[in-house]
């Protein structure tokens, strides 16, 4: 919201004369953004520097906790062999598949439950139970049902994210201003028109918020699945690295997962800004 407001202010300043006070305000906003970014980068660099120093000074055991220099060496070696990119690509495409399926199915199911209130009331307690159930416990069952393959991983990611999507989006659908719905009904609007012209458009922010949540949940499902059945992927690399005591591989995989999650999250933020721009 802060970034969007700032962009709107900057766009407005291009079309109208800007006073000295307005320029000073924009300058303060810009300095604040730079300060926040610089602080974030400093904290990250300080963390890795302290980690490296602690390992070199033997404050921590580098064999167990690894260290940034070992992770960098592992990155170079695995990248040169092409092994790392195969694992990264496997995790990325499976995560995106689970994420997209979870978002699409969650949105469709939320629309269906909004359309049929009787069905929504019947399924409400089951969704609550399924949401509370640790879906990772179902992973071994999925392996038996679907086999030791990538389908089990995708379905695990889907199960973890889809219930949250349904509950989040349905809650947004049910809280649309009833006066607006009555207005459409007054002009003899059909229920389908209410759904596609009011309910869904007014809940774009809610759907995007659900997508932000789904990014992390999809990664959780994929990594759990890769722990159990995969022959490739960062989850497999983490398990294999821990088995042969290559903690630099394990920590490197975790860092790459953090980077991937941050990139996917920022892509959704960019999508949100695009939608807000079109709707604004």
Largest sheet: none
Percent of residues in β-strands: under 5%
Low-confidence region ranges: 6-15
Distance between the termini: 13 Å
Chain-averaged pLDDT: 85
Number of DSSP E strands: 0
Helix/strand order, N-terminal first = HHHHHHHHHHHHH
Question: Structural class from helices and strands?
Answer: mainly alpha
Question: What does this protein structure show overall?
Answer:
This protein has 280 residues and is mainly α. The protein has helices at residues 2-15, 20-56, 62-65, 68-81, 83-115, 117-132, 139-146, 150-174, 178-186, 191-202, 204-228, 234-243, 247-279. It is flat and about 75 Å long.
What's the short story on this structure?
With 280 residues, the protein is mainly alpha-helical. It is built from 13 helices and no strands. It has helices spanning 2-15, 20-56, 62-65, 68-81, 83-115, 117-132, 139-146, 150-174, 178-186, 191-202, 204-228, 234-243, 247-279.
């Amino acid at each position: 919201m802060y970034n969007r407001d700032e962009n709107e202010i900057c766009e407005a300043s291009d079309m109208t004369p800007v006073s000295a006070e307005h320029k000073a305000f924009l300058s303060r906003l810009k300095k604040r953004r730079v300060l926040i970014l610089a602080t974030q980068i400093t904290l990250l660099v300080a963390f890795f520097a302290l980690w490296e120093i602690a390992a070199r000074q033997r404050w921590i055991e580098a064999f167990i906790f690894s260290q940034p220099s070992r992770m960098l060496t592992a990155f170079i070696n695995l990248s040169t062999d092409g092994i790392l990119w195969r694992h990264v690509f496997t995790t990325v495409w499976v995560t995106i598949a689970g994420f997209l399926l979870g978002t699409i199915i969650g949105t469709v199911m939320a629309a269906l439950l909004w359309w049929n209130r009787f069905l929504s009331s019947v399924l409400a307690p089951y969704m609550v139970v399924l949401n509370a159930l640790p879906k990772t416990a179902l992973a071994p069952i999925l392996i038996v049902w679907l086999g030791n393959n990538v389908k089990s991983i995708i379905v695990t990611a889907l199960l973890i994210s889809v219930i949250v999507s349904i509950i989040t989006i349905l809650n947004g659908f049910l809280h649309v201003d009833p006066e607006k719905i009555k207005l459409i009904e007054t002009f003899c609007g059909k229920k389908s028109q209410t759904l596609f012209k009011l309910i869904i458009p007014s809940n774009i922010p809610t759907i995007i918020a659900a997508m932000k949540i789904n990014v992390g949940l999809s990664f959780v499902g994929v990594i759990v699945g890769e722990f159990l059945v995969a022959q490739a992927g960062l989850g497999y690399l983490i398990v294999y690295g821990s088995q042969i005591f290559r903690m630099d591989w394990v920590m490197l995989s975790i860092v790459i997962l953090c980077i991937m999650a941050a990139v996917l999250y920022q892509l959704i933020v960019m999508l949100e800004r695009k939608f807000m721009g079109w709707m604004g």
